[in-house]
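Q: Can I see a sequence and its folded structure?
A: Here is a first one.
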Amino acid sequence: AKGSITPTMRFVFVVLVAAARAGTAAALSTGPTSKTTLKASATATPPAKREPRWDDHMPITGDAPESLVRGVDGNESMRRRMEAMLREGQLSITKAIEELDGEATFSQDAWTRENGGGGISMVLKDGGVFEKAGCSLSVVYGEMPQEALAAATDRGVDRAAGLKPGEKVPFFACGLSSVMHPRNPMAPTMHFNYRYFETDGGVWWFGGGTDVTPSYLIEEDIKHFHQTYKDVCDKHDPEYYPKFKKWADEYFLIKHRGETRGLGGIFFDDQNDKDPDAHFNFAKDALNAVVPAYVPIVAKRANSDFTPEQKAWQQMRRGRYVEFNLVYDRGTVFGLKTGGRIESILMSLPETARWEYNHIPEPGSPEAEILDCFKNPRDWVEPPLSPSRPPPSKQTPRRRVFSVAAIAGAATPHASAPVSRRRHGVVGPCLGLGFRVGSRKKIPSSSAADVARSCDT
């Protein structure tokens, strides 16, 4: 009966009729007798080849391949030699970090790219000493926009000479990049990257460096780090260390903050003014110096006491780390512009960071002390005495440096007692990040000494 049809039923009926009509029309338009479809298929052009994308990477099951370099016979080419050297360094460095951490191990995942190359990423997380540590090897083939090539090299260096505007640059790149983020605010973060580029036009160059990013200034640690790399540089060229140290201070500048990311180390790029073997040997020695330069420092500081406020300061400095990596870092820009694997590109970022509005350290505090270093880079290795330079006893006393004990117990704007080094499950009330305060693992003193000794030999 007409009166039994409700408004709801009428609405449902209308929707069903409309859907049926739409389905019939779609079937007719896609059927074998559709003139529109036949005409379109006759004139259609094949889809244009798209650019490499972040999701083009295919995982490798089982063991990683012996080599990701293609189209090269034998192991004498610089491409193969660089890949082999970096893979060896990746394994030796991750082994040393695992031994120091004592709780977590590195997971490994390998992948390939459709147009050639691939990579091997090794990541440690939620360890006893390290919140996160990553070390990623990449072998990349492809064509990149000229602006991507410019982002991967020193500003003002033209590696696309002879190409027309807009023309892609065929390239090969092989590099090893790593970042280590310790739990303890007294233990610094460390980053390194060593790489080799070639273009099909015959242009090649080396780049890389190692740098350290502490949250608190412990001068003996920074001197040890810089002296280790000065010794490596001096072995190859006495001009390397002052040049590459200055380059690091300039490159790792967070321009919008007017401060550096950390306390530097060495950085170099576009190196091809010597025999390729000379540059290769320097990169190899610099990579091999990562463990003796860094591991003894973390072994000494992993058990230092610290307060929730000092942990918060570490998180704020990690916020600066994120700012630099996402805005200025050449490796990040290059990876994003060439369809790199996102998980590997962003591996360098810490798991937690903090941005506090308009935070200004209290004058005279350890936080203010290191912030001054970020704003005014210093020389950490004393130059040799010259006849015109007075001996140390007659020089103006240097600014006081806070010891580990002083830092760990220093008063801060929200002072509280130092927490124990062992796991307590205490959550810093002012942080809101949900991490535990205090080192999760106490390294026996004999273990720390053994690590330091092994790195010295």
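Q: Show me another, different protein.
A: A second, unrelated one:
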Amino acid sequence: GQFMGENCHNVEFVPAEDEQPLQNHDIFCKYTGLVETLLNDFMKCENLSSEEVYEACRRVKEGGENAWVTCVDYLLAATEYTHFMQLIADFRRMEEYDGEEGEMISLAEYEIELAC
């Protein structure tokens, strides 16, 4: 939501085999820190261990439940740079397309909040 809206247009796409811009790495590190903080807060709030969260993510990914796979993709993006870059690319495409009207939309206004 807000993080992507504020940062996705600052990411520069270059071929994976080329040297990656430092700005991309800085944004990736910020994203990783944000996800870690939110995930730790969620685990504490729900009294879950990292093993329980991992097992739930594994079951979802293997089960192919599309609605939850996106959530797992956001977590993967915090662990691997290539997944992060794919997430940024996907976010940009979603931000620029509205299937019904063909108009540009902005997703920056959507945020996820913990209910603790």
